[in-house]
């Protein structure tokens, strides 16, 4: 009998085909997120559950598992899974680190440049036939070259964002729990500072922390108040790192020059008033959305599935799983 793999949502063909060579697949290709009941039913049926970061895999769902060996999350973040509850039942949890940071850094830069030069409104204006000829004040933006970039969370993605800033001759400040090794700081030309200094001194503040109990709402009204009124906030991390209501209020009052969000507090819902703002760029969580990267992520999921089915420790167990195992 083939092992059973439940794939909870749309998944790249290249990895599905790979899984099909060894497994019976139950595949939700509808594009609709499964309900909690449906997820539980899949957890009960499967040897491996392949999940989206929008699937909330909590203790109640995990308790329904019978022979589940692995929950393989299709994404680098894994705050949607109760890792402790999975560990209790000896169910491995994996994610897809190391393969999406360059793509997410590219998008972060698209957002920085898009905000600074009003790319989306300018495109809209031109399409609408409003362009009547060159104008000295038409869509005046602000420079990126030579400005100060504040990177909050200098892990894989934060570093890839900072590396790109070298080409823009920016001063890079970063903040996280631990200082980077000196040679890494040197290579990135980045300076370790406390959060307040970063917020006060940066022209562009970009967020790259995972969502944890420490980072939840780390950017709220007080932190926004510390930023320069001419500064921009760029957010590609996890929605709840920012208090979206406070951000909408600040943008309404012109307290910040603008913000670009790829993730939202109550994703996929937008916070009231957000869509009406004209100093915001809003994207539908597409940080890792290049064909190459989404395929690579999916193939890494398949590798983890095969590791687990072969009885080997999967190659990208989430941080925190192992410590609890000892
Ligand atoms: C992740 O992997 O956590 C990303 O947000 C997906 O785009």
Task: Give a written overview of the molecule.
This protein has 326 residues and is α/β, with parallel strands linked by helices. The strands form two sheets. A seven-stranded parallel beta sheet has the order 8-7-6-9-10-11-12, sandwiched between helices. Strands 2-1-3-4-5 form a five-stranded parallel beta sheet, with helices on both faces. It has 13 helices and twelve strands. Strand 9, helix 10 and strand 10 form a beta-alpha-beta unit. 36% of the residues lie in helices and 14% in strands. The model has no long low-confidence stretch (mean pLDDT 97). It starts with a strand and ends with a helix. It binds (2R)-2,3-dihydroxypropanoic acid. (2R)-2,3-dihydroxypropanoic acid is lined by residues 53, 75-77, 100, 287-288.
Summarize the structure.
The chain is an alpha/beta fold and 326 residues long. It is 36% helix and 14% strand.
Produce the secondary structure layout.
Blueprint: E1 4-7, H1 13-20, E2 24-27, H2 36-45, E3 48-51, H3 59-63, E4 70-73, H4 83-88, E5 92-94, H5 101-116, H6 119-127, E6 148-152, H7 156-166, E7 171-175, H8 182-188, E8 190-192, H9 195-201, E9 204-207, H10 221-226, E10 232-235, H11 244-252, E11 258-261, E12 280-282, H12 291-309, H13 321-325
Parallel strand pairs: 1-2, 1-3, 3-4, 4-5, 6-7, 6-9, 7-8, 9-10, 10-11, 11-12
Helix pairs in contact: 1-12, 5-7
The structure holds (2R)-2,3-dihydroxypropanoic acid.
């Amino acid at each position: 009998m083939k092992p059973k793999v439940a794939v909870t949502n749309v998944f790249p063909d290249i990895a599905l085909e790979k899984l099909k060579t060894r497994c019976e697949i139950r595949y939700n290709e509808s594009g609709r997120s499964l309900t909690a009941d449906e997820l539980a039913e899949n957890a009960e049926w499967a040897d491996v559950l392949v999940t989206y970061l929008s699937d909330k895999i909590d203790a109640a769902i995990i308790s329904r598992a019978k022979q589940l060996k692995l929950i393989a999350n299709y994404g680098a973040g894994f705050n949607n899974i109760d890792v402790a509850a999975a560990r209790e039942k000896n169910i491995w949890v994996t994610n897809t680190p190391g393969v999406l940071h360059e793509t997410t850094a590219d998008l972060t830069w698209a957002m920085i440049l898009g905000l600074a030069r009003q790319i989306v409104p300018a495109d809209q204006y031109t399409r609408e036939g409003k362009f009547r000829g060159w104008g000295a004040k038409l869509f005046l933006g602000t420079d990126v070259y030579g400005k100060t970039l504040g990177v909050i969370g200098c892990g894989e993605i934060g570093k890839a964002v900072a590396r790109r800033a070298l080409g823009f001759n920016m001063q890079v400040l970063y903040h996280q729990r631990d200082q980077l090794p000196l040679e890494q700081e040197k290579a990135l030309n980045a300076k370790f500072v406390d959060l307040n200094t970063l917020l006060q001194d940066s022209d562009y503040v970009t967020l790259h922390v995972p969502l944890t109990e420490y980072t939840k709402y780390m950017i709220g009204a007080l932190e926004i108040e510390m930023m320069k009124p001419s500064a921009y906030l760029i957010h590609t991390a996890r929605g709840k790192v920012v208090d979206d209501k406070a951000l909408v209020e600040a943008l309404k009052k012109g307290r910040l020059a603008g913000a670009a969000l790829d993730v939202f507090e109550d994703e996929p819902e937008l916070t009231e008033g957000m869509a009406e703002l004209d100093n915001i760029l809003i994207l539908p969580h597409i940080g890792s959305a290049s064909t190459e990267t989404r395929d690579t992520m999916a193939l890494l999921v398949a590798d983890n599935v095969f590791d687990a089915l072969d009885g080997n420790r999967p190659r990208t167990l989430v941080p925190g799983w192992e410590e609890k195992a000892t």
